[in-house]
Each structure stands twice: as structure tokens, then as C-alpha cells.
Amino acid sequence: MSPNPSFVPLPEGIEPLTSTEIFDTRNLSDKINGKAELYLSAGFNRLVSQRFRDDRATDLWMEAFVYDMGNSQNAFSVFSAQRRQDAESLGLAQYAYRTPNALFLIHGRYYVEIITSKVSGQVLQPVRMMAETFIRNTPSEATAVNEMALFPKQELVKNSMVLISSDAFGYDGFDKIYTAEYEFDDHRLMAYLSHRRTPEQAKELASNYTVFLLAYGGQKIEAQLPIKGARLIEILDTYEIVFSHGSYLAGIREAATIKQAKTLAIRLYHRIKEGGNES
User: What is the spatial distance between Cα 3 and Cα 77, in angstroms, rounded to a whole number?
Assistant: First the structure.
């Protein structure tokens, strides 16, 4: 038996190199100093980590980080916030990708990273085998992020969807805000939405965020919008639209023109109104 038993089942040829480490909310920063707040604000429960080696590539090692985030929404929040620019999507799970030296995925409530000691083709297959073995041997509920289906598909920037757990856009009243980027005429702008408990709460949050924008230099612009209660704000030479529909708070940020803001806002409004069904 290995002197360092593994905390997860391992594929053949992969051996533990160190003992298991376990971190909770009190000491997470001991392991990931500088990043802990991202996880803690997203509902982090526990991290289990351990280093392994492939007996066919003894000069290389890999470290697995398994974050128990409490539920799949929290797991998506940290996964999406850290998605790398050089990501290559994988079919291992609904949300999974790899970079030249690492693999990242969501498995229900778990956010998983497997990071290698250096870039090498030798470890790509062992890392994938470890991920597949973890998924196969770890019971978990399905990962469901229903809000993503409500974003319009036209002009959507691929893999740009993110869930911000708290203090979105610098406003402390904004939590659990889903965002997505769009490209209009070589300019990027953002759409966002959040499901609240009641229509009244969504309406109040939209109103409060508008007050926040105006307090920081925003100017309200009168405009004809086919969205009841929508507000158009000019701020820092860009345009924002804030509205609610039913239990959803939604809006557009950083549009270069009023036309861009209105076009995307109307598309988003119709998607929310139709429940994400394609027209």
C-alpha cells in the first residue's frame, strides 16, 4: 500500500506523491493566498488537494484541487471567473476545458483543477484519465445553470458567460449576476441578468442600481424603449440600460452607442419574456 493513500480513486499508473491536504473557510488562504476571497464569496465549503505522479513520467508531477462549492451554481461561478484565454473545450463534462498544463471542470457541486508541474505532452493523457476517474467515482447532482439559456445567441462571444457571486460592477447589492459579452461593429458590450425571489425584489434592485449609476456620474437619457420601466443611462462615454421583467433583473453595460444598447436590451428582454425559447 502507498505511504500516501489517495483521496480519490486513481487510474492505473498514477500514484500519490504527497499526503492529502484539507482546507476549509478558516485556512483556505494558506493554500491559495490572493484567490481565497473569490471562492469564499461564492459559497466555498472545503478544498482537498494532493500531488500525484505518473510512473511513466517520473520527472513530472500533477496536483489535483477539488473544491466543494456547495452547489453547481457556486461551482460555475469560480469556474467561469477564472476561465483561461488559451482554453480548449473538452467533452468530459458540461463545463470542462484544458490549457497546455492543466485541466479544469465542474462536476455537480465540485470545481476541479488538475495542474501539472510543467508543460509536457507526457502528462496530458494521465491528467485526462484522472479527471475521468474522478467523475466516474464521485456521485453528484447534474450541473444546471438555467440562466445561461436566456442570453440571446446572436453576436454572443463564445465562452464569455460568467457568474459573479457578489459586488458585481462595484455595487454591493448585486449578487448572483450572470453576464455575457457581445460584439457589435468591433465593439464589445455586456448583457447581464439575475433571477430574484420576487418581481418586486427585481424591480427594486433595478431601481437601486440606477440610483447607484447616477450617483457616480451617470446621466439619465429619455428614450423610447419597448420595455416597461427600463432606464437608459450614459456613463463614462458608454451607455447602460437597466430593467426588470417578472423576477428577473437585467441590463446592458458598456455599449458604444444608444443603438447598440437598445438592440441588445430588446433581444435580452424578449429572451427572458419567452423563457429562453428560440423564436
Answer: 36
